[in-house]
Amino acid sequence: MDSVLIISNMDKATGFFADTLKPVSVEHIVTVSNCGEARRLLAQRDFDLVIINAPLSDETGENLSRHISSNLMSQVILVVKSEFFDAITANCQGDGVLTVSKPINKAVFWSALMLAKSAGNRIKRMRSENEALKQKIEDIRIVDRAKMILVSCMEMTENEAHRYIEKQAMNQRTSKRMVAESIINAE
User: What does pTM read for this prediction?
Assistant: First the structure.
């Protein structure tokens, strides 16, 4: 976990969260005191984890936590009063928000923190795999476009065009995509 945003209007709670994060080796901890500041900051940059100590001065924090969890890549821990815990958990769990009841039990908060870290790592890995798959799809699309150019302009069959692109890639020691791009650019 590289960066954490703590949203709390209570200095004691902010200190508790910051102290609890020390063993996790968080590089950047940013603190704000209300949802308005948090929304402005989140529009500018991403955080691996957002901890919201509800309620805040300008809103409860529930809507913000759901928005962050649904629309951003950040993991969210929402700390709420015990009398609202069940209702807020029911509302937020579908969006992936982890809720913790006040008064905060350090062991429970630590468990929520480790769950958030684990889920964040999994999401990062899936995002990386997704980007790799998008790249492969784009490569295939470009190679197919080059094959169609070879079929139409050079009167090759599709298999001949495919073999031609592969052979050029091997001979030039480049990727099939680079060969395909040069064919497309030469057209």
Answer: 0.74
